[in-house]
Write a structure and sequence with these properties.
This protein is α+β, with helices and mostly antiparallel strands. Helices cover 33% and strands 26% of the residues.
Length: 384
Amino acid sequence: MSTDYTERYIFEAEWYDKIACILKKFYLYYYPVDNTVELFDLKTRKTFLRRTKCDGIKAEDFYIGAIITIYSRNIKIIDFADKNTKSKLQTITQKTFAIIKPDVMDKMGEILKRIIAHNFHVANIKMVKLTKEQATEFCKGKESTQLPFIINFLTSEPVLALELLGDDAVAQWLKLIGPEDSSEARKTAPSSLRACYGKDNIQNAIHGSENSDAAENELSFFFPDQKSKKKGPDNTATLKNCTCCIIKPHAIQQKLIGHIIEDIQKAGYTISAIQQFHVDSVNAEEFLEVYKGVLTDYGAMVGELQSGPCIAMEITHKDENCDIHTDFRKLCGPMDPDIARQIRPNTLRAKYGNTKVQNAVHCSDLPEDGPLEVEYFFKILDEM
């Protein structure tokens, strides 16, 4: 986006007021020059929020389907509101759909690092286990003599569904992943993802939408709009011998998703479920209620959790005798990153945290909290 002082972008947006049970519609104004926003209520025809600066919001956050957190309210952008905004932004920012397939799920952190390094923004993420019916529906219209083998492969183990955002995203993503046959990719595009991680033309590591229409259809299949009556594939949370880890909004904004996930996987842990959530103030307060009156930073912790999208993960270990809660807390490190850097420099908070509030990750404090926190995100919030 340009930073012309006179420039502004206007979007149609909506926010569901859970207290009043009303869907409110707005014009959302964004001013790139000073990173300010303004909300105009379309029903009352009055200004809902005067032009104000919102920390943590960046120009690239504004696109159709995006959820912008403004003072604890998750505002969803549903369309461009004027021709100027549409003409300038529609061709710049594009969405596409991707799948990290079963054969490389153990390398998803490493792959996510490469995706983000190539200027893609991960707008949504969810681990799912496809049924045969879902995989068949997803592959509908695709022409291949090996379709039965592809369906069997896609349903063999969980996959990671991704909504990616970027400039000319569909074409650039296809370029990054390379030819469908991994053997061919190694010959013609040796640095592509399929060349580096794929085995053949079925176990080829990555899926990418063929065109913008396919991307739209595939995104709606895996990430259906809340207003639609469709339900995407279920998450993969097991609630068994697990603990909870949440990548905080600031770490997502700092493009640390891949780094954190890679460190967790390299430490020997299994991420058995992962999903992005937008947590509102009520849910943030409820989830962190155990810290109320205990930690002076409770209010700031609530503010951080609701400041943007977070990524919740169910963490397990292949060794059933592993004390998953205690061991994983050691990997996360002390709550204060400054202390962590002194005494546990290789922990997640030491490497990726900024402050006691923006300390990269949340992890369950008590053994019994792990399954409960996983359940809160993957069973309660996911079904709201």
